[in-house]
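User: Run a structure prediction on this.
Assistant: Running it now.
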Amino acid sequence: MAHVPSSLLTLLGLLACGSLHVDRSFVEAGRVDRIRVRWASGEIRVRAGGSDAVRVHAEAWGPEAPIAIHHHRDAEILEIALVCRTPVPCGGALELDVPAGVAIETDLGEGEAHLSGPLGSLSVVVGNGSIEAKGLTSQEAMLQVVRGPVEASWIRIPQRVVLASVEGNVHARVPAASYDVRWGGLEPVVLGVVVDPTVDRLIRVTTLDGEARVEGSGAVAHIRPVDPWGLVAPGRPPYGGSPCPGSSASPLMAPPHRARAPSHAS
């Protein structure tokens, strides 16, 4: 792969008829601490730990209209964006191979986000689609889908995990430890999970229409929705983040319930 200088790079294609396809690969050398991705639709794959530099492969396609893939470097922050300059949607696929510890911020309008390996902090928002994350070492993660499932697993004890979906299952798998486990807007039933509201390790899982599940040491906590459609507080972004893509009202739920430690009475 050829090295691309750390400056604004715009790939712009035009076709008189038919469809447009843009394909580009490059290596971003030098230290990168954080990557911000804004992607219209399609698929994003991020793999950590297998490269000593940021390696990017991006494809984009759309019908008879301009498509732009923007790449911008500002100190240790790399920004990548797929922009559809037409009322007709465009899509694309983005693959990132990054060094261990790189933080990821992603806003995907529609599609699938896949993340794996020893990444840094995570903030991933998907409109319609899904999030799958595995083998994580991230100490902090906010993973949110408006419509679709969220599934994430850690190989190192995290400090703060927030997983949420309006319509979809939410599943967190973490190493055995004590956690302050909370649910927003759902009446929890906790089975076999170490729950300690005094610790500073937080796990919050929320779904308004689906099943939320937390697993630790092979034990599982299940929750079932209670009046899910009466729990939306309009006009506020979820968990202090950005409003959901394409929505003027964000699905912030009521203040979270704190799970109680299970009783050991016979």
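The two ends are 64 Å apart (CA to CA).
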